[in-house]
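Action item from last week, closing it out:
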Amino acid sequence: MKITGILETCIYAEDLAAAEAFYGLLPGLEPVSKEPGRHLFYRCGESMLLIFNPAHTSSEQTYVKVQNIPLHGSKGPGHLAFSIEGKDVEEWKEFLKKKSISIESEITWPNGSVSIYFRDPAGKSLEIVSPDIWKNT
């Protein structure tokens, strides 16, 4: 028995309209579901990105049939890394520049992988990087 991957990742944003405008720009994220003021769901490859408004999910109980989903929510910058093809780093830098999304930092790791860091409207630290970053570690 073992964990075989990450199925979904959840981040939190109080301004879901700003989050939707921002994440809707990012190539590769496919909108799946939204409930205004409560959540946005995106397909990201084989995984799901869930964006919840913590004002709702940390205090309002949600039920599926009669089963409750545990309350959850967080505040603060947080971090999420998106996997990209290593050959696409320059194209991504150009895309971010065209969309007026400031690159906060660019790191070349000892194994040659490159990370590009930027922020979403809620202040989350986002990274785009090749999955090669974790090879030989």
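Closing note: The chain has a mean pLDDT of 93.
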